[in-house]
Amino acid sequence: MSTETKEKDTQAKAAPTVESVDDVVVRFAGDSGDGMQLTGTQFTSTSALVGNDLATLPEFPAEIRAPQGTLAGVSAFQVRIADYDIHTPGDAPDCLVAMNPAALKKSIGDLKQNGVLIVNTDEFHDRNLKKAGYEVNPLEDDSLAAYRVHKADITTMTFRALDEMDLDSKAKNRSRNMFALGMVYYLFSRPIETTIEWLNQKFAKKADIAEANIKVLKAGWNFCEITQQFQVRYEIEPAKLQAGVYRNIMGNSALSIGLVAASRRSGLPLFLGSYPITPASDILHELAGYKSFGVSTFQAEDEIAAVSSAIGAAFGGALAVTTTSGPGLALKSEAINLALMTELPLIVCNIQRGGPSTGLPTKTEQADLLQVMFGRNSDSPVPVVAASSPSDCFFAALEAVRLATQYMVPVVLLSDGYIANGSEPWRLPEIESLPDLRVEFRTEKEGFTPYMRNPETLARAWAIPGTPGLEHRVGGLEKEDVTGNVSYDPANHDHMVRLRADKVRRIANDIPPVEVVGSESGKVLVLGWGSTLGAITGAVNEARSKGLDVSRAHLKHLNPFPKNLGDVLRRFEKIIVPEMNLGQLTMLIRAEYLVDAQVFSKIEGKPFGRQEILERIEQTLEG
Amino acid sequence: MSTETKEKDTQAKAAPTVESVDDVVVRFAGDSGDGMQLTGTQFTSTSALVGNDLATLPEFPAEIRAPQGTLAGVSAFQVRIADYDIHTPGDAPDCLVAMNPAALKKSIGDLKQNGVLIVNTDEFHDRNLKKAGYEVNPLEDDSLAAYRVHKADITTMTFRALDEMDLDSKAKNRSRNMFALGMVYYLFSRPIETTIEWLNQKFAKKADIAEANIKVLKAGWNFCEITQQFQVRYEIEPAKLQAGVYRNIMGNSALSIGLVAASRRSGLPLFLGSYPITPASDILHELAGYKSFGVSTFQAEDEIAAVSSAIGAAFGGALAVTTTSGPGLALKSEAINLALMTELPLIVCNIQRGGPSTGLPTKTEQADLLQVMFGRNSDSPVPVVAASSPSDCFFAALEAVRLATQYMVPVVLLSDGYIANGSEPWRLPEIESLPDLRVEFRTEKEGFTPYMRNPETLARAWAIPGTPGLEHRVGGLEKEDVTGNVSYDPANHDHMVRLRADKVRRIANDIPPVEVVGSESGKVLVLGWGSTLGAITGAVNEARSKGLDVSRAHLKHLNPFPKNLGDVLRRFEKIIVPEMNLGQLTMLIRAEYLVDAQVFSKIEGKPFGRQEILERIEQTLEG
Amino acid sequence: MVTETTTLKKKDFQSDQEVRWCPGCGDYAILSAVQAVFPELGIPKENFVIVSGIGCSSRFPYYMNTYGFHTIHGRAPAVATGLKLTRPELSVWVVTGDGDGLSIGGNHLIHTLRRNVGLKILMFNNRIYGLTKGQYSPTSEVGKRTKSSPVGSLDAPFSPLSVALGAGATFVARSVDVFQPHLKATLKRAAEHEGTAFVEIYQNCNIFNDKAFSYVSDKEARSEDVVYIENGEPLLFGREKNKGLRLSDGEFEVVTLGEGGVTAEDCLKWDEARKNPALAFQLAQLDGGDFPTALGVLRCVDAPNYEQGVISQIRSEEESHGDATLQDLLYSGDTWEVG
Amino acid sequence: MVTETTTLKKKDFQSDQEVRWCPGCGDYAILSAVQAVFPELGIPKENFVIVSGIGCSSRFPYYMNTYGFHTIHGRAPAVATGLKLTRPELSVWVVTGDGDGLSIGGNHLIHTLRRNVGLKILMFNNRIYGLTKGQYSPTSEVGKRTKSSPVGSLDAPFSPLSVALGAGATFVARSVDVFQPHLKATLKRAAEHEGTAFVEIYQNCNIFNDKAFSYVSDKEARSEDVVYIENGEPLLFGREKNKGLRLSDGEFEVVTLGEGGVTAEDCLKWDEARKNPALAFQLAQLDGGDFPTALGVLRCVDAPNYEQGVISQIRSEEESHGDATLQDLLYSGDTWEVG
Ligand SMILES: Cc1ncc(C[n+]2csc(CCOP(=O)(O)OP(=O)(O)O)c2C)c(N)n1
Ligand SMILES: Cc1ncc(C[n+]2csc(CCOP(=O)(O)OP(=O)(O)O)c2C)c(N)n1
Ligand code: SF4
Ligand code: SF4
Ligand SMILES: [Mg+2]
Ligand SMILES: [Mg+2]
After folding, report:
1. Cβ atoms of residues A266 and A301 within 8 Å
2. Does some domain include residue C83?
């Protein structure tokens, strides 16, 4: 955060100065029972309503309830707020709240030099220190000297604030996160009203719980004011965002709403066949709540049944979707080819996570690109669309539906754990601006054959059961073109394999060219796809502001590529492809365009930081 | 067939001349009830014993018993015999036996101009003509003028030959294929004794059936001799093959025997977990017959159970194998990653067939290369070995086992329907010449950790249940290197993803360089893999004998590539890659070496012909 | 435009595709029975859909002039479920084999049955894998020698009806390919059932497992060794209907009427709608040996139908938030304006 | 070197891994019971293998100091089958959940049961998906509101024991996480069974489905509403053992001893080894409602064991072609020599 001191409050002796900063990163970290996700979300909502731009990065433990106090049990929520347009939740926090030793241990390495550290001293007792693997209490040696440490007996003060309330100590204890939130609200000059309102609403039926939480929230704020904990307070002005109505949105939520929007715009009922898997399950949960939009969700017995049910629904004329993550996608691959062969529209959403095998289920990765491209028997190309940010999931969903229904083909939509659970403010689109996705089923008997095609898109006609006179059979055996009869004819097979590939290739005529941000040609191009957009944008902006000759381009369509991609790539001397994998897009680009693109891999289960990409740009320019 | 007329038999007036030819292609075609596979196999065995080199290509109908007389019901067997080293079953037959109109219709287009055509006129009645889609009887118009047509009332003559035998007419009818075989034996001057012996053996318990078949076989021969059907008879001298003991072998059989050999050479009991699927089922059948070699075969409930059971067996210390074809492989992909993550040896045999989806189950294709490379979630490289001919399946199996057990990794062995069912004479290796595959399990407690590694191969130790003191747990979650504990650590994950890739990459140090046949550099290189070897060899030999500047190289290892491959490729101006797919190896080569390799695709469910590759070479040299 | 269903004939359901089963295959008889029954169901032709997996039996849809889906191995119940949930007005029939339905597809089958999705599932049980040329199947008897079990298979077979009942099936029945009137009657009963109807059809594969069901279908056997279940009637069998099944200590025993004073009254009166499926389960287990084989409808109970539940949840949610627009959805949650 | 099995203690089976279930989870009790039973089985420690799928329950192997394999979702029975077929001397235990074992893994489960592979399968049934944070499972009751069924689930649940019996299981039993002595005794019985032993363990998930089994495990319920099965004994229950289960027209009814002259003799004497599994099936269906819930071993019959069959086929083939060498194999068939 770059600061600018304002002397706002000079009366009281030790009263803090208020600095205006443009950008701040806060991380709340604690035990999984400490309510850190909720605390972070509240801070986010409040900041959103204040008008900041923001981005969030939640981090869950792999266990449901990992043993209390352990490193494995740490739950954290990072949020970045700014008075300008930002792209990532930030590389390193300016402020860290550590509710116990394990949280401190796990996060302290990331905290910026001279950053603000708030710790709940009550939890720094021997047992907890041991669980976190501390030999000495870090609050008592000088290991934290590089930070502005604020020790607070948060638990003790919470109980004190609730002394007079008739609640069991478990309930009292549970509100201590509000104390921390109060402190952070004070530090960053945020209003506490939004949270008070939210608490009243949430605990409408448990007034005492609401009251306790509010009391503690205020106590946290007051504690700071009274003890003058902080020498400096910060202010972050509203961002100069484009005019409009905004809401804060997580990727999985945007994706769900996008599918419902596509259902409305296409006039097709939405059917989701799914089997729970991290980090895709929330889409199932959210869509299960949209029955009032005519959505049916089917929790199948496994992934194979999930995708198969969707294929059945597509045959029946529904907007058919299946959602999963890597291991589940592997199981669906045989059936996806059935949709491909029968030329039925199907949306396969793959929310990528760390692999291979069970891998790192709660961590992010973007290493399923080649799986979705090639993970099926024989030549079986499908269009692939990738979302690049939480709100972009909405648009990616609409685009996937457009391609699937217009071209009668299964389409893969790629997202990942980072954008699925991360959030950002989203300027809500006008409904009328959304694409018209209306679909017409074939009803005319005259001249109908099951594999007759639209000469432009090569899409076959969609004739659904219940239509008199169009009775026909489809299936996974090779089909004779036009008639749709089973055919073992050699020439027909060759024709059909090429036709299916051609159908996907032609989509290139129907998607926008890739845009270069920066100069149209030059020394270095940073090419990205998916959730690396934020970090790349940040890094390239910064590099360009330093005068470096670097541009960037970001792919939304991974198959087919935009038509101009080859031209774009050839205009740069060097191409860097940051990927959270060993170089999957890189391989595709190299094969297609014979350009010496180089991958910049990071496979750590967490997103790229702006800084590391910036450094790689600098190295590349030097090297 | 190039001919050289010898005046051997000039006494009898119309007695045929005998020509010595170096190479002849015969196709037996009939209804699936006509026993064409058996007929072809007999012709093959006899020719093998005569000492010819040979190659076969069976073609089955997709149905078990397709309706009699229809095109879909045609079963054919093509065999090429030669007095020199050949590589393919030939592009076009010199001689066609057509047992009914459908067989004629389906094959006549392939018969060489002026080729010998033998037809069973008895079957050319209206009903059959209609079933085959003939409006006029082709024997009665001049549509066959380009061929040397020999009409024979085969059915009638068969019954006549058996007039005095007390057999039902069904049994009599069934032996008519022997009449055709007798004719062809006469035409190509083959001895009939081998077949007589075989019939006596096969029908040892049904002497009358044996007798009937032998009678008819002789009747066919005699018919030719008496009626002087043919103006020319042919002779094919024994091939000058390398000294040794030979047997004729089909690919699936060679693969099965190769696995048993690997079991013996490694000292590990062989376990096969499989689920039947065309064209892989025969491996299950054959191995099920090798119980006396300690082989256990488990017919699982599906492909997932099949591969999973093999993984369990590998954990227990068996030589674990699973066999399948494309759609089954898709189902196995999730579990293969479990073997990858737990670093257990596993042999995955994929006998490719036409796809996508159910596709063309009985036809060949080589379009699963990218599936086996990338069809799993996340970065998950596995070694890939491809067999290039029926007998090479034996060696490919040994090589797959070597890599799997030495590197503790799942290995994919690729074969395809063409070589699986095709056959060739195989010079049997000396047992002692086979690689030593001995494996040592870890038993030493001292210093043991589950993911400790051989520093050279990076293989982890194989410590099997039942070993005191080495109790440990493995699984699909990311592992900490060395200790094998579950780890969510970012740096460890990055390390492990790269390590797993590195382990596979290092295999390049342990495999032979790719050999160039022809000049070491030049205008055109034909690069192949798998079952295209024969056609490419034939085409390149012919092109070189015409003085064209073309060489060839064939890959046995698809992952990793031999170390010298890049150098080899860069020494040629143009690279053609004939593939029975849309360009899968081509893509890998382009990405890896940035060379402008061009695919020559043929996706017709049948192997390349020599001629079409030759033409492509010529075009490339011109273009 | 709705086809006049009353005028439908058998041949309206015959497609123009050449039937490609082996001559003599039991599948022909089943095809013929289905083609005969469909016109009698009062359902418009365009509302029939046949969904199959992979196997000889699964080629069925090609020969029916209805909508059809020849899916992938084992997955037909799942594909059909998705179709039925979104298009409950369709009459969706699943055709599967003992391998397709019980081997690779066993899981989808049992889950479909427990959910009680309104599908009619016909399992052609030939106790062999036909299409892949003769390996033993999950219904093959122990000791069977096949291509993949050259010295005899070791796997104890499933009893398909027992599996179905164990999964909670609401309708289970058994018939035989060549028992045309019985088969047609059984198919009609299946068609009438609201939930999942599971019908096992003994089917002869004359190529790889000929005469597997001769103990039921042989001339002698069909009148002596089969108990034809009639709801509400005692379990009697034999040409003279002089034998019966009686319960003793909770288990069936074969009795002869007249002997030791046994009458038809002593034999169990069959109630296909019992709450507890245990007696149907017990009857399903009888298949050859000392006992007769039971054919007919073993169980038929009313139970909530899955797709109706799905639809009514949607309807009631639509009603309570009936006027929710896309605008509402998008602009829900905490929003703020930048202006 | 074989570990002295007689000296094994509970703590020999505790691994050094930190146990990561939620505090209060029923899995702890099951872990403790297993760790207590293993030393008593007379099996060398190195011969135990625990194979699991994915789910909270499936983390089990990490906490046991034995060989262990945490496989993938639903596939544990298949992995364990391959292991057991090749290493029959090992004691192989499968740990699975209601989702892992009955949803995605249902097919492997039923096939393992019908084959009668010598595995001990422990299904931790908490009627919920724990690890994925609370969706309904195939054993969740109709109407359950969860993350994925916000207005109530529609799917009729499986009765796991009925599914197992329908599949042909040779040993099925049921116990409860917190009934330690009962659980341990049941595990021992499972260990002694030659074929597949299937044990359903009611397990409390205090986070997502707390008190799901209070109708069995509550203080009052455990003595009043549970029938503890003892082989050879009549089915009696209640604190005073004054209630019983009697068969009437083939179905169970609850009777009170003394009322209307009913004695313990009238209640069904349990025989776990009956040939026909129908009565066990009927008993398995009783679970709450008007009937008591049955705990203990419902069925235990001798039947050919699969891996023994595999091994003996191999042995007998080895004996009859005993001296076959690799040379013989290679040089078999029609060979010819080129000189
Ligand atoms: C994924 C997959 N695995 C295996 C196969 C091969 N296959 C096709 S049908 C079949 C079994 C057929 O048996 P069944 O269902 O009894 O049908 P039937 O042919 O006897 O009617 C098998 C194993 C396949 N098509 N797909
Ligand atoms: C292929 C695959 N699909 C889905 C998942 C996600 N998943 C993990 S455990 C689980 C269900 C767990 O439920 P259960 O077996 O009842 O175990 P519990 O956690 O309740 O003990 C699911 C759906 C996965 N890991 N792999
Ligand atoms: S193989 Fe058997 S089941 Fe298949 S079509 Fe032929 S007779 Fe029928
Ligand atoms: S979520 Fe439930 S089942 Fe899983 S560990 Fe926690 S309490 Fe146990
Ligand atoms: Mg069958
Ligand atoms: Mg559970």
Report:
1. no
2. yes
- How far does C55 lie from chain B, in Å, by closest CA? 10
Q: Which residues of A touch D103 (CB under 8 A)?
A: 275, 301-302
pTM score over 0.90: yes
Measured CA to CA, the distance from residue A501 to residue C108 in angstroms comes to 32
Say if D68 falls within a structural domain.
yes
**Boundary (domain end) residue, out of B388, B417, B433:** B433
Q: What is the pLDDT of residue B1?
A: 53
Question: What is the mean pLDDT of the segment spanning D193-213?
Answer: 97
How far apart (Å, rounded) are the C-alpha atoms in residues A601 and A227?
Answer: 47
Report yes or no on A320 lying in a domain: yes
> Angle at the Cα of B496 (from B492 to B499), degrees rounded to 5?
135
CB of A327 closer than 6 A to ligand 2? yes
CATH code of residue A352: 3.40.50.970
Q: Which residues, 6 or more positions from B364, have their beta carbon under 8 angstroms from its beta carbon?
A: B279, B352, B353, B354, B416, B417, B418, B531, B580, B605, B606, B607
Scanning D6-25 for CB atoms below 8 A from B yields 15, 17
Chains with 3 or more CB pairs closer than 8 angstroms to D?
A, B, C
Same-domain pairing of B207 and B295: no
Would you place residue A562 in the very low, low, confident or very high pLDDT band (cuts 50, 70, 90)?
Answer: very high
Q: Is D130 in the pocket of ligand 4 (CB under 6 A)?
A: yes
Hey, is the C-beta of B367 within 8 angstroms of any chain A C-beta? yes
Contact D250 C249 (CB under 8 A): no
Cβ pairs bridging C and D (under 8 Å): 139
Number of domains in chain B: 3
* A46 assigned to some structural domain: yes
Which one of A32, A37, A65 would you mutate to disrupt binding with D, by most D Cβ within 10 Å of its Cβ?
Answer: A65
Q: Domain of A616: which CATH number?
A: 3.40.50.920
Residues A1-57 pLDDT 10s: 544 444 444 444 467 888 889 999 999 999 988 999 999 999 999 998 888 998 899
- When divided into structural domains, chain C yields a total of 1
Nearest atom (ligand 1) to Cα of B302: 3
ipTM of the complex: 0.94
Mutate to test the pocket of ligand 4, among A60, A63, A65, A281 (most ligand atoms within 8 A of CB): A65
Residues B481-533: tens digit of each pLDDT = 999 999 999 999 999 999 999 999 999 999 999 999 999 999 999 999 999 99
What is the domain-level CATH number for residue C159? 3.40.50.970
Together in a domain, B192 and B261: no
**Same domain, residue pair A420 and A545:** no
Domain that holds residue A29: 17-235
Residue A210 has pLDDT above 60, yes or no: yes
pLDDT at A64: 73
Q: In sequence order, what DSSP letters do the residues of C227-256 get, joined into one string?
A: EE--TTSB-EESTTS-EEEEEETTEEEEEE
DSSP secondary structure string for all residues of D244-312? EEEEETTEEEEEETTGGG--GGGSPBP-TT-SSTHHHHHHHH--STTSPEEEEEEEE-----HHHHHHH
Residues of A in contact with C108 (CB under 8 A): 301, 304-305, 308
- Amino acid identity of residue D162, one-letter, is S
Task: Give Cβ neighbours of residue D204 (< 8 Å, ≥ 6 apart).
Answer: D24, D25, D26, D126, D177, D178, D210, D211, D212, D213, D217
A91 touching chain B per CB within 8 A: no
| Claim to verify: residue B67 and residue B205 sit in the same structural domain | yes
Task: Tell me, yes or no, whether B228 and B275 share the same domain.
Answer: no
Provide the domain limits for residue D123: 10-226+302-306
Do A197 and A270 belong together in one domain?
no
- Look at residue A428 and tell me if it is in a domain: yes
From the candidates A309, A378, A391, A467, which should be mutated to test the interface with C, based on the most C CB atoms within 10 A?
A309
Residues B217 and B318 in one domain: no
CB-CB neighbors (< 8 A) of D85 in chain B: 271, 296, 298, 309, 313
B216 and B329 fall within a common domain: no
CATH assignment of the domain containing B154? 3.40.920.10
